[in-house]
Amino acid sequence: MIVTLAQPRGFCAGVDRAIAIVEQALSRHGAPIYVRHEVVHNRYVVDDLRRKGAVFVDQLDQVPAGATVIFSAHGVSQAVRQEALERGLHVYDATCPLVTKVHSEVARMRDQGREIVMIGHRGHPEVEGTMGQSSGGIHLVETVDDVERLVVSNPAHLAYVTQTTLSVDDAAAIVAALKARFPSILGPKKDDICYATQNRQDAVKALAACSDLVIVVGSRNSSNTNRLREVSEKMGVATYMIDNVDELDPQWLVGRSRIGLTAGASAPEVLVQAVVARLRNLGAEDVRELDGLIESVVFPLPKALAG
């Protein structure tokens, strides 16, 4: 049995930054530090930060007045920012800079008087935060069929943005449908799907091409991790998503000799290495890493926490 690791995999710059913001805030202010929503979608990371003194809440009314709160990497609506201001909360913003870019696009396009179509998954915190950048004039589509049902005020004055963690291929199909129905629709200057999502999906395609089983490490509420599973499955390869090594079923390996292993952008490498160790115990004779991009992107911490 040969185990092949995707490259790149695991943490991206936005996740590194978000975790560092929580840890730095705890170091500077002491526990508790409140975090609105899971700072990143990974159970291991959230549990680790909780042990260090982070308190995760769903709504700001769960945060004592005047306390310190961190906004998650997924971003928040303008209404949430206003509520934090009115309640006198001390805010550190861990929103991924690439999500902030999408928020800026929404603001600019609305200032131009354009209605906006957001491509994304209903209920995902990033989608809620992005749509909450405008009090109206923004529509959500999840599928090509949604595009056909879309009703807008002025078809000649439209723009679109996307969730940063979508399937690159699925998003491209929806964008094509939007352009076919609304030829004058304006897109972002640069694709909203982030570099890490693109790179990991490209890597899992290469991984699936040389594997007869692919294991994706990451939590089930992680959008980018689910997309990795889907990309591999669409290539016809048996694919399983696990939160940690305890969920690995040895029966999956029966009759399979080429095991591919990757991880979502919010899954730490320690979880990957635990799976590697387990696969070695189950008979893996060789562990190798695919050639791939070495990411060097780093996002700086907020000035108030830097240094």
Descriptive notes:
By secondary structure, the protein is an alpha/beta fold. The protein has three domains: 2-11 and 194-289, Cobalt-precorrin-4 Transmethylase, domain 1, CATH 3.40.1010.20; 13-96, Rossmann fold; 98-181, 3-Layer(aba) Sandwich (Cobalt-precorrin-4 Transmethylase, domain 1). The chain contains ten helices and twelve strands. The strands form three sheets. A five-stranded parallel sheet has the order 10-9-11-1-12, sandwiched between helices. Strand 9 (213-217), helix 9 and strand 10 form a beta-alpha-beta unit. The longest helix is centred in the N-terminal third of the chain and has 17 residues, at 13-29. It is flat, with a radius of gyration of 21 Å. The chain starts with a strand and ends in an 18-residue tail after the last strand.
Average pLDDT, rounded to a whole number, is 97
Number of domains: 3
CATH topology of the largest domain: Cobalt-precorrin-4 Transmethylase, domain 1
Question: What is the CATH architecture term of the largest domain?
Answer: 3-Layer(aba) Sandwich
The residue fraction in helices comes out at: 25-40%
Number of helices: 10
Rg, Cα atoms, Å: 21 Å
Would you count the extended β strands for me?
Answer: 12
How would you classify the helix and strand content by structural class? alpha/beta
H/E element string? EHEHEEHEHEHEHEHHEHEEHE
How are the SSEs placed, and which strands pair?
Blueprint: E1 2-5, H1 13-29, E2 33-36, H2 43-52, E3 54-57, E4 68-71, H3 78-86, E5 90-93, H4 97-111, E6 115-119, H5 125-131, E7 138-141, H6 144-149, E8 158-162, H7 168-181, H8 195-209, E9 213-217, H9 223-234, E10 239-242, E11 258-263, H10 269-281, E12 286-289
Parallel strand pairs: 1-11, 1-12, 2-3, 2-4, 4-5, 6-7, 6-8, 9-10, 9-11
